[in-house]
């Protein structure tokens, strides 16, 4: 058995490598790391095996294969083969990647998006395991996997960022969830830190906060100016917590941002700003140089710092993001989790909120969860309901907090009103026409029309 592990970032590969150490990915005869560069312009960003500090991750695999070597200038997250080409492409992959004719297992990120989706189509007999490195593991997939993929799903392997919280997809589709313990993952991060020796973290006693950036503007969730202002708010929050220096670590896939508002905020607060240009995951620095505070929006690094490392964390902008996200956006559960953390929710109560958010995202697929969602949303303050589930979706689904009638009820009311109006007007019109014809006026008008012709 050859196991192909697909990863688009170094952090995702590190999560999969930690799962290997924990014994959660079995013991294949050969384990191959399949690298897919997720950057919008892959030519301008290093692949995960080109980042200093990646050695311990690569050591968990027998060899590394690049999708770019097969696809050339085609982006692996955009390109998809035609159905008629699948048999030919499978033979090509087995030859070029040296897979032979033996069985293959796929360990992929979300199976509903490319390149995982087209790999599952090409290797149609391969069992599927999903690995997830962030809070998105706990929410529903945006699209339901194709039938051929659903039938082959074996497990979801994910970092245990919210202990006790059960992922939605495993309960929706009926497959196993395997949580990666903290020890192997933190041990791997420590190995990466020792190899990379990240030197951008200041080595002194000045209280320093790490600001974890994301690529929200690139995802069109915020404008570039709004994202810069979000970072400025992080600076102010860190200063209010006592930090005298802030280190801003942009997301590796983020395009160059607007730093002027961030620098202005640091100047106003009288604190030093350090901007880091390093593709190494922020989590490696958290292990190498634990900061006094970690500030972010809904970044996985913030959750890692909070749950796995026990570091102080602050979340900024979750309310704005929940207002901006479409009802079915896959980021809604991660943002809702961080927002709920800030409200002190945990345990069963957090599970209830996540399930209600998931129902609002996918009401047809999760129709059996409606009653639970109604109970949960009934107990949530009204101003919070419209954040966890958008007000329009509350109205559409007739959930607690709805404003006005649901669209289907409004359509039903309009049809009923139209029928009622016709039932009154039609007899009046028929009667008027009958009386007009009986009065002789109709005959005179017909005679005049014949004479005019």
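-> sequence recovered:
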């Amino acid at each position: 058995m050859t196991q192909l592990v697909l990863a688009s970032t170094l952090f995702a590969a590190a999560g999969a490598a930690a799962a290997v150490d924990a014994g959660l990915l079995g013991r294949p005869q050969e384990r191959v790391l399949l690298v897919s560069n997720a950057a919008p312009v892959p030519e301008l960003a290093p692949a995960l095996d080109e980042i200093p500090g990646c050695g311990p991750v690569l050591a968990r695999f027998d060899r590394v294969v690049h999708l770019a070597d097969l696809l050339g200038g085609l982006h692996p997250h955009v390109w998809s083969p035609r159905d008629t080409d699948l048999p030919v492409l499978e033979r090509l992959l087995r030859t070029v990647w040296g897979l032979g004719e033996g069985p293959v297992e796929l360990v992929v990120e979300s199976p509903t998006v490319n390149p995982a989706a087209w790999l599952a189509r090409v290797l149609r007999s391969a069992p599927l395991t999903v690995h997830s490195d962030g809070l998105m593991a706990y929410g529903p997939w945006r699209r339901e996997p194709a039938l051929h993929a659903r039938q082959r799903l074996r497990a979801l392997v994910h970092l245990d960022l919210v202990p006790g919280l059960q992922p939605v997809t495993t309960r929706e589709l009926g497959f196993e969830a395997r949580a990666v313990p903290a020890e192997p993952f933190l041990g791997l991060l420590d190995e990466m830190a020792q190899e990379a020796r990240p030197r951008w973290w200041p080595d002194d006693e000045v209280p320093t906060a790490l600001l974890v950036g994301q690529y929200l503007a690139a995802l069109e969730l915020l404008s570039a100016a709004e994202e810069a202002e979000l970072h400025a708010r992080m600076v102010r929050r860190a200063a209010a917590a006592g930090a005298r220096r802030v280190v801003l670590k942009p997301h590796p896939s983020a395009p160059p941002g607007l730093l002027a508002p961030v620098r202005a905020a640091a100047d106003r607060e009288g604190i030093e700003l350090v901007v880091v240009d390093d593709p190494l995951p922020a989590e490696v620095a958290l292990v190498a140089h634990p900061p006094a505070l970690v500030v972010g929006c809904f970044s996985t690094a913030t959750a890692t710092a909070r749950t796995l490392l026990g570091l102080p964390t602050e979340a900024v902008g979750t309310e704005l993001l929940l207002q901006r996200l479409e009802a079915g956006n896959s980021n809604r559960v991660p943002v809702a989790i961080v927002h709920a953390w800030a409200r002190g929710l945990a345990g069963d109560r957090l599970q209830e909120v996540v399930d209600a958010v998931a129902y609002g995202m996918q009401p047809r697929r999760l129709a059996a969860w409606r009653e639970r969602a109604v109970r949960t949303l009934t107990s949530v303050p009204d101003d919070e309901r419209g954040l966890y589930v958008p007000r329009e979706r509350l109205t559409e689904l007739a959930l607690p907090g709805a404003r006005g009638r649901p669209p289907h009820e409004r359509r039903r009311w309009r049809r009923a009103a139209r029928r009622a109006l016709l039932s009154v007007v039609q007899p009046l019109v028929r009667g008027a026409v009958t009386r007009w014809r009986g009065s002789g006026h109709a005959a005179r008008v017909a005679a005049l029309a014949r004479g005019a012709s």
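The chain has 20 helices and twelve strands.
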